[in-house]
Amino acid sequence: MTALIETKDLTITFGGHTAVDSVTITVPEKKFKSIIGPNGAGKTTFFNLLSGQLSPTKGSIYYRGKDITRLSPTKRTREGIGRSFQITNVFPNLTVLENVRLAVQSQAGVRYQMLFHYKKYHDFEEKALEWLKLVLLDDKKDSLASNLAHGEKRKLEIAMLLALETELLLLDEPTAGMSLEEVPAILEVIKRIKEQGNRTIILIEHKMDMILDLSDSVMVLFNGRLLADGTPEEIMKNETVQSAYLGGVYE
Amino acid sequence: MDLFFNLTLNGLATGMLIFLLAAGLTLIFGLMDVLNFAHGGLFAWGAYSGLWVYSQTGSFLIGIAGAILTGFLLGIITEKWIIKPVYGNHVQQILITLGLMLVLSEMLKVVWGPNQLTANPPDYLVGAWEVGDVIIIKYRVFIIFVGLLIFGGVQYLLKKTKIGLVVRAGVMNKEMVQALGINIQKVFMFVFMIGSGMAALGGVLLGPYSGVIHAGMGMEFAILAFIVVVIGGMGNFKGSILAAILVGLSGSFMAYYVPDLSLAVNMLLMAVVLLVRPQGLFGAKG
Questions:
Q1: Closest Cα to residue B68, out of B212, B237, B219, B202?
Q2: Inside any domain, residue A239
Q3: Which of A89, A101, A110 sits opposite B176 (nearest CB)?
């Protein structure tokens, strides 16, 4: 089992505050890893370091054995790292299909001959539609993204992320801000992605049942430090984790 | 009836010229967040270079092509060497583009002299059609036709091509376009080039319309174009043609009925829009 992404002593300090503190992890190919931890534990900051939105103060990140610590976010996307954000990020005045098509064409290498590729246009639309089907949003393809419900926007965002066809998916709280009725639909989408079996996924979530259901391994962050890292069962049994984060709820 | 028709046609033609200038301005602002005060300079350069090519070749159409080419070229140079170093810094952008505007108009005087030049339409566009008691001046119809053609072309580009989708998305949120792994710098240059080409086209069309061209013409039209960009909504391409027609018509009718108010009315229009709908008449909120 080869490691897809690894961090070594990853640390970032803002002023005097250490948000992520010497975190060393390995995520093998095609595995599903979840990150849990209380608010302010440094989960999103850790994602920002992986995707390149932030540069670490210390430590390094390897992707397929290559040091990517100093690469820009765009370059990391091209290497194969795609991420979603906690706040939904779609283009409001484009249709659902256009949103995904944009991601499809950027994946296909929009950098060359952008103007005169009209023939490929239909291929792009078809490809985009496939992704929409995967996230169960194809019936809304002609709506403006701004008219979607929050949960649907999330799905759209995930479809765009999928369309980039990156090997690694970083999902930052896909159920954040969602009504209870919308959560199962997102869970279903994530399951479908997992079942495709060709991606490595790292998920930040608060919903424990979801994490236990999906994850191959779980890491726990607490005050920026790696408190525990293991299979869901190991994490549930871990006493430090229970007292620090789970508070005994899942005993 | 005759008068009404003529004023309308006149207003539409002027509106189209303003549109050609404002369209580039609004796209450049929407996509790149750059207020390009030098845009009027490209308009004037289009007028001079087009007239020069026209006089050398004897063909008005080749003159137009020459103007557009000049616009493209100046656009690329401006983006690459003047605008790129100051992305994200509005104060520097205003200073450097205003400076460029002055340099561009002075350069015109260096090359073609300080006096205004006369410009005439080609023979086939001179004169008018008479329909009943209505007189339709050919050249005005020609301008309206070209304006609509360009509008249709750019609309097609925005809606039906790969780069068009990137431009529309970029106007909404360029950070996210970059997050998708798209090199937006190249798109910036492309949009700047197209915008400059349209401005230059507007300039070369204005020549035979007003009969004379002078180095300060860019500044005059740029003010109207800025008003149009505000009224139509910053970054809104469709809004720019509607607002340009509105400004063109109001200018044309006011110039006839209340001449003293003809420039003020546009300023007033802009002030009212800013008060009531700051995002512009056709702009999306937020």
A1: B202
A2: yes
A3: A89
CA distance A217 to chain B (A): 28
What does pTM read for this prediction? 0.79
Q: Which residue of A has its CA nearest to B283?
A: A93
CA distance B46 to B63: 9
Answer yes or no: do B180 and A160 touch at CB < 8 A.
yes
**Are β-strands A217-222 and A32-36 bridged in parallel, bridged antiparallel, or unpaired?**
parallel
Residue A77 forms part of a structural domain: yes
> Which has the closest alpha carbon to A150: A97, A214, A98, A86?
A86
Chain A CB within 8 Å of residue B165 CB: yes
Q: How do strand B128-131 and strand B212-213 relate by DSSP bridges?
A: unpaired
Minimal CA separation from B163 to chain A, in Å: 6
Facing B172 at nearest CB: one of A92, A114, A117: A92
Q: Do A94 and B162 touch (CB under 8 A)?
A: no
Which CATH number characterizes residue A189's domain? 3.40.50.300
Angle at B238 between CA B232 and CA B240, to 5 degrees: 40
Query: Tens place of pLDDT for every residue, chain B, 286 residues?
Result: 688 988 999 999 999 999 999 999 999 998 888 989 999 999 999 999 999 999 999 999 999 999 999 999 999 999 999 999 998 889 999 999 999 999 999 999 999 999 999 999 999 999 999 888 788 999 999 999 999 999 999 999 998 888 899 999 988 888 788 778 787 888 889 999 999 999 999 999 999 999 999 999 998 899 999 999 999 998 899 999 999 999 999 999 998 999 888 778 888 989 999 999 888 887 654 4
* Cβ of residue B153 closer than 8 Å to a chain A Cβ: no
Residue with tokens 């709820």: A249
> Quick count: other Cβ atoms within 10 Å of Cβ A74?
16
Strands (E), A15-117: 17-28, 32-36, 58-63, 66-67, 81-83
Domain assignment of residue A251, yes or no: no
Task: Report the half-sphere exposure of A103 (CA within 13 A, side-chain side).
Answer: 32
Q: Report how many domains make up chain A.
A: 1
pLDDT in tens, A6-18: 999 999 999 889 9
Which residues lie across from A10 on neighbouring strands?
A23
